[in-house]
Amino acid sequence: MSKVLVIYAHPETAKGSSTQELYKHFINSYTAKNPNDEIIVHNISEYMPFRLDKLAISIYNKNLAKSDLTPDEIRLSESRDKWLDEFIHADKYVFANPMYNLFIPAEMKRYIDMIMQAGKTFHYDDKGLSVGDLHGKKAIHLQSSGGNYHNDLIQNDAMIYDLGDQYLQTMLHMMGVDDYSAVFAEGMDKDPMHTIEILDNAYAKAELAGKEF
Fold this sequence. Notes:
By secondary structure, this protein is of the alpha/beta class.
């Protein structure tokens, strides 16, 4: 049995979204194939309490100096460590989000900032280079966007503008997670006449990915 951690970044609204549907097709397919796996879901657009603020920086600096933490710092550190431990002990990661201005949502960036912890998810070797500590895990990125970045036959270099997927893959690689794949629902705004066809194709890919993940 695997432990699957889902980091979902989209506000809950009355109106459905392509991100939501892409995720549903993937996770329904996955659970049908793996009914005994444990799935933990965090919608970080609704709840993501850990900011990289002065309190977080103070904790970081005091830990380096091996200084005592204040009661407020202890509470934040213990609460944040529960999320960090959850990430470390998961076997598989699912990141689902819409593209916002060529990038992932701010809450997902905040989540990455939280889990990128030296001595926990990576470490520095004797040459000062970062080495990932999370091995044998796999990740998938499910993303929707109005533009077309990965299947644009006219603009061959469009992929370089998807900064969010590049960033997510890079940060996971730095933590040792190299089994990485992605499914994109994209181009609906660019080609609205074919929206239904575009989404149906993306959902079919998500279902296949769910069976294979």
